[in-house]
Amino acid sequence: MIEHRTPPKKKAKELAKALRAERPDYPYLKSVFRALREELEITVPRKEARLPAIPTEDDIRHFYQAVWNCRNFADMVLIKTLFYTGVRVSELVSIRLDEVDVERCQIRITQGKGNKDRQVPFPHSFRELLALHMEQMRIKGAVYLFESLRKQKYTDRGVRKMLARYAASAGITRSMSPHKWRHFLFTWLKKEGIDDALIQPYSGHATRQSLEIYSKLSLADAQPSYDQAMERFPIQ
């Protein structure tokens, strides 16, 4: 049974009166209350770690079947690019035509999250389809890999609405954000035996602990393993 406690606002005034003369700033108060928690033996409750709900292989097959049924060539290329590379939507819409290396099956992501540049691969089997799309875009005078009929690059919101529309057509009722499709690729590559040290540079999630390892790896080292794994990817 908890005994009567002073109302929080009143207790705050009492603490403020005791501390005001020291003109505390935020870092000092943070340290004081950390020490106070330790003195009172109060532990910070931890949130239960939950695994993210990611799409299944059946989900991705049904999703792409919905895309295929619509026969929209540009949408097919966009969605395959998103699924094969695992780039963020904000990165996808900013890819320029001159950042796609069809010969080496690589795309340069410029100023991605954290203002970092990186190279991401796409499967060799996707090269001809992507090259055909790029040729069509160049004929239209496009600058970006994906542009609207008004010659404006796609927006983040527009791509998200497109994905939601196809998910609904596929009968997928639960939330399937672009981040979950991205997570599917990296989880799938991991399941296929691709080492974390090869996946990490693609994802753009470099950690301080892994920087030393990743600095020794190049995309050329990872490409053969990636190509071999992607031959078994749920959509081709």
The gist of it:
With 236 residues, the protein is mainly α.
Structure, explained:
There is one protein chain. The protein is mainly alpha-helical and 236 residues long. The chain folds into two domains: 14-39, no CATH class; 57-230, Intergrase catalytic core (hpI Integrase, Chain A, Orthogonal Bundle). It has eleven helices and three strands; from the N terminus they run H-H-H-H-H-E-E-E-H-H-H-H-H-H. The chain has helices at 8-19, 26-39, 57-70, 73-85, 89-92, 127-139, 156-169, 178-191, 196-203, 211-214, 219-230; strands spanning 100-101, 106-109, 118-121. A three-stranded antiparallel sheet has the order 1-2-3.
The CATH class designation of the largest domain is Mainly Alpha
**Largest beta-sheet characterization:** 3 strands, antiparallel
Beta-strand level of the residues, as a percent range?
under 5%
Outline type:
elongated
Indicate the mean pLDDT: 82
